[in-house]
């Protein structure tokens, strides 16, 4: 077995690989960019090498530097993780040319599946069912339009190279086709250097079901159950589970055998995933094959009891597969939730910031957290905004769902926006509990997935006041005289009671509270009502009784900004000071950057008349494109940035004179 490997990746997958390698007695070499100098994967590795500036194009995608470090460090093999160079044919070939084992499939297999159009031709020859569409080499707009008409609508435009939802557009009719094609080609070229497209019939109620396959160098191939990844946003997976609910054993077997045929058709070696669209009538169609370890591999590990990274290392060393098909057994049900820095209420816009407070559920045989960050780390614009993967297992799907709901309630983050509340609402929604799964799940159930707060506003303000006052008390020095009224740590005044004011700001609204402090409780007046509050704070854990209602919650107070966590919900407020001077990022006649990023395209010029909602600027951040639209009708008076420029969150991009609009 290898005694030293290099991990050409970062974040949670690098940490995940290191854990298994260390358990197997293998030393690990990490690489890191400027942004990751203090990252968790660097601290976990036996040694680490600086590889370049923060942008991945100048660090983690520098194949020649990674090869040099592997040779310098004496690493016998390179594990690419997922993303970055994991499906790069040239990198796999460079490893081989330098006598380094690439822990992944042979380069010809990567090349065969790297082109979705070529992959479909191979699958057709292997007898794997395909969705109707076009996957030819001729990319002329005229032919693509003709093929679109032949395929029928709705259809899906998909980049021939790459994945992760980039370069994909759903087109409802021919009137939308040209604009959607141009946008998808531009995004594909920027992400993968290849603008070529394929066309597929877009199934309106499909499920996304994928098969984990594994092949060794002796020609053996097996499948390790299936995963359902139907709950997605922007064509990117949000929840994954194994086994897929509601599949018959015959379908499981047929799909698994088709996946193995697909892998063996390209002489595959190692871990791979064959993805299918599963239709309501029970039919399934090949979608693509990912020639690497998948983000969602933990759910397969949880139901099979196997360590797939260990399998990768053994197969790369030359060992045969640890099991044959008859020996593969599954048990129970597992679900994975991807925790992202993003704002679900703003179309899942990626977020940046510092994890100033991070508390995760306790890990056990039923709960697993795969992450590459710790409290205090920054989520930057340079990499994917995934914070962690939360995986749960239990005997039945119902029990696994309940366990995931509980675990999400115990996952608490402050300092930046996350999708935890959205995930909690999604998993707890009745349609998910009933496994009514399609790739349109989020769009179909928006009313359930974006619920109102479970906390009444006035009660939340009372609890916030209790948390703030109790934390202030814990920070104040206590007098040496326990009988002195001046040592009571409350608002005691000689001969009269003093109701101290407290103003809390929630969004744009300010709320005036009056608090009369007793020895054993607070009397809080807010919104014309009076509440009796008993509160006890232990670190971040608040036990409270509000007018006889006992409840417990957690919180984080930082620089007068408070976040309370209760039952999967969050409540945010700020202690208001007149000197704070809150300002809006953008006024009615201007556009501001919603995050740090780079300008991909400016779609207007000075003097143009524009309409509210018209796309004016395309920004790229965290590997995704975002359209910045006109806030109102008007005339463009200034454009402050050009294509290729880097911009900071809140920077004014374009000025519009709304007074001149007709």
UniProtKB/TrEMBL annotation:
Keyword Ligase carried by entry: yes
Signal peptide segment: none
Known pathway: Lipid metabolism; malonyl-CoA biosynthesis; malonyl-CoA from acetyl-CoA: step 1/1
Domain Biotin carboxylation intervals: 1-447
All copies of domain ATP-grasp, residue ranges: 120-317
Keywords attached to this entry: ATP-binding, Biotin, Ligase, Nucleotide-binding, Transit peptide
Chemical reaction(s) catalysed: N(6)-biotinyl-L-lysyl-[protein] + hydrogencarbonate + ATP = N(6)-carboxybiotinyl-L-lysyl-[protein] + ADP + phosphate + H(+)
Segments forming a coiled coil: none
Stored InterPro entries: ATP-grasp, ATP_grasp_subdomain_1, BC-like_N, Biotin_BS, Biotin_carboxylase_complex, Biotin_carboxylation_dom, Biotin_COase_C, Biotin_lipoyl
Thylakoid recorded as keyword: no
Matches recorded under Pfam families: Biotin_carb_C, Biotin_carb_N, Biotin_lipoyl, BT_MCC_alpha, CPSase_L_D2
GO MF terms, alphabetically ordered: ATP binding; biotin carboxylase activity; metal ion binding
CDD domains found in the cross-reference section: biotinyl_domain
Domain Lipoyl-binding: start-end pairs: 580-657
SMART domains for this protein: Biotin_carb_C, GARS_A
SUPFAM superfamilies associated with the record: Glutathione synthetase ATP-binding domain-like, PreATP-grasp domain, Rudiment single hybrid motif, Single hybrid motif
Cofactor: biotin
Domain of life: Bacteria
Purpose: This protein is a component of the acetyl coenzyme A carboxylase complex; first, biotin carboxylase catalyzes the carboxylation of the carrier protein and then the transcarboxylase transfers the carboxyl group to form malonyl-CoA.
NCBIfam families hit by this protein: PRK08591.1
Subunit comment: Acetyl-CoA carboxylase is a heterohexamer of biotin carboxyl carrier protein, biotin carboxylase and the two subunits of carboxyl transferase in a 2:2 complex.
Protein name: Biotin carboxylase
Organism the protein comes from: Marinobacter fuscus
């Amino acid at each position: 077995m290898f005694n030293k490997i290099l991990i050409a990746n970062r974040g949670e997958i690098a940490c995940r690989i290191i854990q298994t390698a260390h358990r197997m007695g293998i030393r690990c070499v990490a690489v890191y960019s400027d942004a990751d100098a203090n990252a968790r994967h660097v601290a976990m590795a036996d040694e680490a090498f600086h590889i370049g500036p923060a942008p991945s194009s100048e660090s983690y995608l520098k194949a020649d530097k990674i090869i040099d470090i592997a040779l310098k460090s004496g690493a016998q093999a390179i594990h690419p993780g997922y993303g970055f160079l994991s499906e790069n044919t040239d990198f796999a070939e460079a490893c081989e040319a330098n006598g380094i084992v690439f822990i992944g499939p042979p380069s010809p297999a990567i090349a065969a599946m790297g082109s979705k159009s070529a992959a479909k031709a191979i699958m057709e020859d292997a007898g794997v069912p395909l969705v109707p569409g076009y996957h030819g080499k001729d990319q002329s707009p005229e032919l693509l339009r003709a093929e679109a008409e032949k395929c029928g609508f709705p259809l899906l435009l998909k980049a021939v190279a790459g994945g992760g939802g980039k370069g994909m557009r759903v087109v409802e009719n021919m009137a939308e086709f040209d604009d959607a094609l141009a946008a998808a080609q531009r995004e594909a070229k920027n992400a993968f250097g290849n603008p070529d497209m394929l066309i597929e019939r877009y199934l309106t109620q499909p499920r996304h079901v994928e098969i984990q396959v594994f092949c060794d160098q002796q020609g053996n191939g097996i499948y390790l159950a299936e995963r359902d990844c139907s709950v997605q946003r922007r064509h990117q997976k949000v929840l994954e589970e194994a086994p897929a609910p509601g599949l018959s054993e015959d379908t499981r077997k047929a799909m698994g055998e088709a996946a193995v045929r697909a892998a063996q058709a390209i002489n595959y070696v190692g871990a791979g995933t064959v993805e299918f669209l599963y239709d309501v009538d029970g039919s399934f169609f090949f979608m693509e094959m990912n020639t690497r370890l998948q983000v969602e591999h933990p759910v397969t590990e949880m139901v099979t009891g196997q360590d797939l990274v260990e399998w990768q290392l053994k197969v790369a060393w030359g060992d045969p597969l640890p099991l044959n098909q008859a020996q593969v057994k599954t048990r129970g049900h597992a679900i994975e939730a991807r925790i992202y820095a993003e704002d679900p209420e703003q179309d899942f816009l990626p977020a940046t910031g510092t994890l100033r407070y991070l508390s995760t559920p306790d890990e056990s045989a039923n709960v697993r957290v795969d992450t590459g960050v710790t409290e205090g780390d920054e989520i930057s614009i340079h990499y994917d905004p995934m914070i962690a993967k939360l995986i749960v297992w239990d005997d039945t799907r119902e029990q696994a769902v309940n366990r995931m709901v509980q675990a999400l309630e115990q996952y608490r983050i402050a300092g930046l926006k996350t999708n935890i509340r959205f995930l909690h609402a999604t998993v707890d929604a009745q349609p998910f509990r009933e496994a009514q799964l399609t790739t349109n799940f989020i769009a179909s159930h928006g009313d359930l997935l974006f619920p109102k707060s479970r906390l009444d506003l006035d009660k939340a303000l009372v609890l916030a006041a209790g948390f703030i006052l109790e934390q202030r008390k814990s920070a104040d020095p206590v007098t040496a005289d326990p009988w002195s009224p001046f040592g009571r740590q409350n608002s005691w005044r000689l001969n009269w009671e003093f109701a101290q004011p407290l103003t809390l700001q929630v969004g744009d609204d300010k709320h005036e509270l009056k608090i009369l402090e007793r020895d054993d409780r607070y009397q809080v007046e807010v919104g014309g009502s009076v509440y009796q509050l008993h509160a006890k704070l232990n670190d971040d854990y608040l036990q409270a009784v509000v007018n006889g209602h006992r409840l417990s919650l957690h919180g984080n107070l930082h620089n007068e900004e408070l976040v309370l966590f209760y039952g999967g919900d969050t409540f945010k407020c700020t202690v208001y000071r007149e000197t704070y001077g809150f300002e809006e990022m953008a006024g009615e006649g201007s556009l501001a950057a919603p995050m740090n990023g780079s300008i991909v395209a400016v779609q207007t010029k000075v003097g143009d008349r524009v309409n509210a909602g018209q796309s004016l600027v395309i920004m790229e951040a965290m590997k995704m494109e975002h359209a910045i639209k006109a806030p109102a009708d008007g005339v463009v008076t200034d454009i402050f940035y050009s294509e290729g420029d880097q911009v900071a969150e809140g920077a004014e991009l374009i000025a519009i004179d709304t007074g001149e609009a007709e």
